[in-house]
Specification:
Layout: H1 6-19, H2 25-35, H3 52-62, H4 79-86, H5 91-101, H6 114-120, H7 131-137, H8 144-157, E1 163-165, H9 166-171, H10 182-195, H11 204-218, E2 223-225, E3 232-235, H12 237-241, H13 243-254, H14 267-277, H15 291-294, E4 325-326, H16 361-376, E5 380-383, E6 390-393, E7 398-404, H17 411-429, E8 437-443, H18 452-460, E9 464-469, E10 472-476, H19 480-486
Parallel strand pairs: 7-8, 8-9
Antiparallel strand pairs: 1-3, 2-3, 4-5, 5-6, 6-7, 9-10
């Protein structure tokens, strides 16, 4: 993380997505990285073969951009990973958001070191099978980047130097187990500075972890860390300029309900971790935009910022016309004449290699998920390349579906655009069909059920809302036929 750039991150993720369904994706990804001079080849001494992908894929799963290779035989991107490739989220936004969202316990860091196993032997925690279970049993619920922000802000407010040395990070912050401990942590640092009584360091391994965290935080927009053997972490100029907005983000992220809670730490639990951590979550307030992001600079959007889909119906008298065709993007796999297991349908499981080569990967994968869900229920699915994302006919009723890929920043603007589109398509369709129609907005993000947007669409406009929850389709609707079709 100390040397990663937006180009490094983009190209390794692009190659992972592009070659994921090849016979030997690792070899193809390694070759792509070498030919394009991205990162190092990491040639193994025993085989003489490059192993860049084996070594660097950890970076992608750590950031929630792909699912861990230990869980799936195919390289599988999360919604956040697709959003980065699409250019709907910038490098700075990804790094800052994921640093603030990363929590303990989580489904990525499971391994317990031998010293830790020895330390809990003979205690009530000895039965814990992995690190996540141990942390959960011990009451750990912490987001370290949020903790660092809170400690720095408190130091600033108490007129102490608003900076954290590597020694202080290791000896104080890494002793905290919940975010609620930040006042005591900051006050202890102040006492150590003024009275000279310090807590001991935790050891070499923990110090390396502290150094890694500070390198990680230096890649965000809200922190800055000196690059030396004794780094010092402080608030960036951008962070100080937008301190109140970052405070609000941290308040939202400290809420217990926003934390991933481990179950049995099964494969399904771990898959849920990546699906949740790798999701676009509208419950998290938007990050302020940096000047580089506002200008859509190459350092933020390697292949350019995503542009709005501006398709319009063919220009005809009366405002145009919706020209339907059978939906082309899916092919339901049937085994023994059985429909797919609906409980397992996720935006990742309906992956289409062809769709993920387009400029709107996440949007098109969401269209595919909705279409496959409806076809599995026996519905007939249509689209129009010039207008409607999906028109679904089911049980003598039509559903017009408009899909939008959204982030917390563009959510309201794209919701308004989607409303205009779906109302226009409904008007045009009324000339050709007398069937009753439901208007449906679909967003490629997690939307909490208490969001104003749910009430706005369901109650005020009598429309349906489809969202993603842990990669699965979630239906917000008071209309039972919609719940049955899309649920």
């Amino acid at each position: 993380m100390g040397v990663v750039t937006s180009a490094h991150l983009y190209h390794i993720l692009w190659a992972a997505n592009e070659f994921s369904r090849n016979d030997d994706p690792a070899a193809d990804i390694n070759n792509y990285l070498i030919v394009n001079a991205q990162l190092t080849a990491n040639v193994r001494e025993d085989s003489g073969q490059p192993e860049g992908w084996r070594d660097y894929q950890q970076m992608l799963s750590e950031l929630g951009l792909i699912f861990s290779s230990k869980l799936t035989s195919l390289v599988t991107l999360t919604t956040l990973g697709l959003a980065y490739l699409d250019g709907s989220m910038s490098f700075s936004e990804i790094m800052t958001l994921q640093a603030l969202r990363l929590q303990y316990p989580n489904g990525h860091h499971l391994q317990m070191s031998p010293p830790l196993k020895n330390a809990i032997a003979g205690t009530p925690f000895a039965a814990a099978r992995n690190n996540a279970e141990l942390q959960h049993r011990a009451g750990v619920q912490i987001r370290p980047a949020v903790l660092a922000w809170r400690v720095l802000r408190r130091l600033q407010q108490r007129n102490s130097a608003a900076e954290i040395s590597i020694d202080e990070f290791e000896s104080y912050l890494m002793r905290c187990s919940t975010n609620a401990e930040f006042p005591a942590c900051a006050d202890a640092i102040i006492r150590a500075r003024t009275q000279g009584v310090t807590l001991p360091a935790l050891g070499d391994r923990q110090r390396r972890n502290a150094q890694d965290w500070m390198k990680f935080l230096n890649n965000t927009t809200v922190f800055t860390a000196t690059d030396d053997r004794q780094p010092v972490l402080s608030l960036s100029a951008f962070g100080m300029q937008h301190a109140e907005e970052i405070d609000a983000m941290c308040t939202a992220l400290e809420t217990s309900s926003t934390f991933w809670k481990p179950g049995a730490i099964s494969k399904a639990d771990r898959t849920r971790w990546y699906a949740e951590f790798g999701a676009i979550d509208l419950a998290v307030p938007e990050l302020p935009k940096t000047e580089a992001e506002a200008k859509a600079e190459k350092a933020e959007f390697v292949e350019g910022e995503e542009q709005e889909d501006t398709r319009i119906p063919k220009s005809l008298p009366g405002g145009g016309r919706v020209e339907l065709r059978a939906f082309q993007g899916i092919e339901i796999q049937q085994s023994n004449n059985q429909l797919p297991n609906m409980g397992n349908l996720t935006i990742q499981s309906v992956y289409s290699a062809e769709l993920t080569k387009t400029a709107h990967r996440l949007h098109d994968q969401m269209v595919l998920l909705i279409a496959q869900t409806c076809e599995a229920k026996g519905a007939t699915v249509f689209d129009d390349p010039d207008s409607v994302d999906l028109l679904v006919q089911h049980q003598q009723r039509e559903f017009i579906v408009e899909v939008k890929s959204v982030t917390p920043r563009n959510f309201i603007a794209r919701l308004r655009y989607a409303l205009g589109q779906v109302l226009h398509y409904d008007f045009l369709r009324s000339a050709d069909s007398q069937l009753p129609r439901r208007k449906v907005i679909a967003l490629t993000a997690n939307v909490p059920s208490n969001s104003w947007s749910v009430r706005f669409l369901n109650n005020h406009l009598d429309m349906d809302l489809l969202t993603l929850e842990s990669g699965k389709l979630r239906v917000h609707s008071p209309f039972q036929a919609s719940v049955q079709l899309f649920g």
